[in-house]
Amino acid sequence: MLKKDISITPAFDYILNDKKKAEYGRGCAKITFAIIGEKGAVTITGFTNWFLPETLKVIPEITKIENNLYSEIAQIHSNIPLKNTDANLSFINCYDNCFYVKSEKCYCYNFLSCHKEEELIKLVVKEGSEALFKKLEYYYKMYLNN
């Protein structure tokens, strides 16, 4: 049985090399949608651009602010290395999302560069979370059930 999860958390600011400026949550908030099963999870994270006033004062020095909800992260978290990898997957190190996997080792993959990751966020806006969860379940079955 697959479980659905939605979490909203502060977004770490990984874009800065200056550790004094890279404050927890300073970037914005992130919303993560996940389909979780025995073999791992498929997630998509959207960054909200919900900035605090103090962030809005310094962010122009760092990066351009876009006035939209956007996503840069779609990931697969697996208990074991995936056997059915394709050109759409790239292995990465997991740094803050490995809690979806309950085994000793976690294997993380970025994916969706060819699956139109941005379209998944638009799906939430147009059709709601249930439509997104159906699509994430499709990817779970595609990559984790083989």
Description:
The chain is α+β, with helices and mostly antiparallel strands. Helices cover 25% and strands 28% of the residues. The protein has helices at 53-62, 117-127, 129-144, and strands at residues 3-10, 29-37, 40-47, 70-78, 90-92, 107-110. Strand 2 (29-37) and strand 3 form a beta hairpin. It is globular, with a radius of gyration of 16 Å. The two termini are 16 Å apart.
Keyphrases for this structure?
6-stranded antiparallel β-sheet; alpha+beta; single chain; 28% strand; 146 residues
Alpha-carbon distance between the two ends: 16 Å
* Helical segment count: 3
Rg, Cα atoms, Å: 16 Å
**Beta-strand fraction estimate:** 25-35%
- Tally of structural domains: 1
Low-confidence stretches: none
Oligomer kind = single chain
User: What structural class do helix, strand and pairing data support?
Assistant: alpha+beta
Whole-number mean pLDDT: 76
From the spread of the alpha carbons, the general shape counts as globular
- The number of strands is 6
Report the sheet with the most strands, covering strand number, pairing sense and barrel closure. Answer: 6 strands, antiparallel
Strand order of the largest sheet: 1-2-3-4-6-5
Return the string of H and E elements: EEEHEEEHH
The share of residues in helices is 25-40%
How are the SSEs placed, and which strands pair?
Elements: E1 3-10, E2 29-37, E3 40-47, H1 53-62, E4 70-78, E5 90-92, E6 107-110, H2 117-127, H3 129-144
Antiparallel strand pairs: 1-2, 2-3, 3-4, 4-6, 5-6
Helix pairs in contact: 2-3
Kindly summarize this structure in a few lines.
It contains 3 helices and 6 strands; from the N terminus they run E-E-E-H-E-E-E-H-H.
